[in-house]
Amino acid sequence: MDGSTCKIKQNYLAASLIMKIFIIDGLSLDLGARVGRVISARMSEERYGSKINESYYNDGQFSKIDLGIAGGVSYRINSDFDFSIRFIQGVNTLAGLKESSYDDPTYSVFEKDSRGRHLQFSMGYWF
Questions:
Q1: For the whole model, what pTM was predicted?
Q2: What percentage of the chain has pLDDT greater than the value 90?
Q3: pLDDT digits (tens, 9 = 90+) for 17-27
Q4: What's 121's domain CATH number?
Q5: d(CA 16, CA 26)
């Protein structure tokens, strides 16, 4: 929709369960799952510069749980340090309007398939 913007900010507490498959010494393929619980969520929508809608988590427009499938690679440099990169693809829809807007019962500011996608970089220290 021209002239409209929708900004969504969601904060989650999340945990991952990752299996490491070692390919060669120090290099592993990481596969697993991630589950997150929304702590706060806010959506603000503007149309031609005027705020027309603001929603919060309690409005029921945001999913309480974020489920995802994770995959990536890790490399352990030595006995103390490792680095990893992972991509996490959500499997459930994160948000959707429970009421219609703009006098159109089919209108939604979200795609029908609004799922989370995360790119995660990490560095670990083993002690």
A1: 0.68
A2: 39
A3: 999 999 999 99
A4: 2.40.160
A5: 21
